[in-house]
Amino acid sequence: MKILAIETSCDETAVAVVEDGRKILSSVIASQIEEHKLYGGVVPEIASRRHVEVISKLTKEAFRIANLTIDDIDAVAVTAAPGLIGALLVGVNFAKGLAMRYNKPLIPVHHLRSHVAANYICYPNLEPPFLSLIVSGGHTHIVSVKSYTDYEVIGCTRDDAAGECLDKSARTLGLSYPGGVNLDNISKDGDPTKYKMPHPKVDGSPYDFSFSGLKTFVINTIHNNEQKGETVDVADMGAAVINAVVDCLTDNVSKAAKELGITKIVLSGGVSANSVLRERFATLCKEEGFELYMPELSLCGDNAAMVGAQAFYEYKAGNLAKIDLNARATMPINEEF
Predict the structure, then answer these.
(1) 56-84: b or e for each residue (b if 16 or more CB lie within 10 Å)?
(2) What phi, psi does 304 have (nearest 5°)?
(3) Where would a tag sit more exposed on the chain, N or C end, judged by fewer CB atoms within 10 A?
(4) To 5 degrees, how large is the angle CA 151–CA 152–CA 154?
């Protein structure tokens, strides 16, 4: 089954053709990083306009690379939630138009489910059940994936996402957008023990996270040093905050896996590209005897191939949309459209 997949949840316009949920026939992305870098972060209105400008051309390019036409496609899939509402609407309306014009089934896909599904492309033999850590700029979840379309949230952040904590720490340190990536790069030779970081926990919820206090600690430390005329070592501070975030993530995932008796750990989301996170989870899983699955770096960030992968299983489960499908800025991962 060949699925045309569309992703416009934030600032990446992406289109892909995926076969049977596991094989990429084409995958193209138009990045807006350089433009949003001028503002230090994503400007929703600009993101939406850029999606409108390139989505048609990008779809033609995806067909060209796959050496296919719309007639060869069995269904159209699109990210319908969660994300920036204006950006999502561009993709949803474009997909609805294609589905209606060419009489193709329309498959709505949850953005976080598709991040998990990126691993299905990288690991053809990977099947649920497993425990997945979904970690990105806007989301931090520990999810029990019971089947391809059955998810149970085990833990999540109560405030800031892990990626948001890293991004805002990077911005305070004077690093440009995208902050998390630049923080990772500049901190490789830093000393993570130079600054003693808090490791917030949520009372009564051992699998939940709280990163706002950690972010505030970094910001306050930098500002206090500036007031004293002292400088903060960017590499050391970056290494310290990354290390603290990863400590929280590995501790909670390890605890959940042991208590739930789950031996397969799947990383997903943009922050799963972080080098420290990948290294620490590799060490953790080796020590505890867990199986570890991590997406290729090219599939960690937003892309349409992962949408096509998840769409295949949504289609098999009968989770299709009618032409009145609407985008949603927020939506639980375990809820159906």
Answers:
(1) eebbeebbebbebeeeebebbbbbbbbbb
(2) -90, -20
(3) N
(4) 140
pLDDT in tens, 131-146: 999 999 899 999 999 9
Look up residue 114 and give its two tokens. Answer: 């598709």
CA distance 241 to 275: 14
Fill in the amino acid letter for 3: I
Residue 182 contacts residue 171 (beta carbons within 8 Å)? no
Q: What is the CA radius of gyration of the chain?
A: 20
Cα 106 from Cα 94, distance rounded (Å): 11
The confidence score (pLDDT) of residue 256 equals 97
- Please name the residues in contact with 97: beta carbons below 8 A apart, sequence gap of 6 or more: none
Torsion sign (Cα): 166, 128, 152, 203: negative
| Cα dihedral 244→189→298→218 (10° resolution) | 30
- All domains of the chain in start order, with CATH: 2-116+299-316 (3.30.420.40), 129-297 (3.30.420.40)
Strands (E), the chain: 2-7, 12-19, 23-31, 75-81, 106-110, 130-135, 140-147, 150-156, 264-268, 291-293
Q: Would you state the structure tokens that stand for residue 87, as one six-digit string?
A: 């950006």
Q: pLDDT tens digit string along 281-314?
A: 999 999 999 999 999 999 999 999 999 999 999 9
Nearest CA-CA partner of 132 in 306, 305, 337: 306
Q: What gap in Å lies between CA 180 and CA 161, rounded to an integer?
A: 12
Q: What are the structure tokens assigned to 56, written together?
A: 């048609």
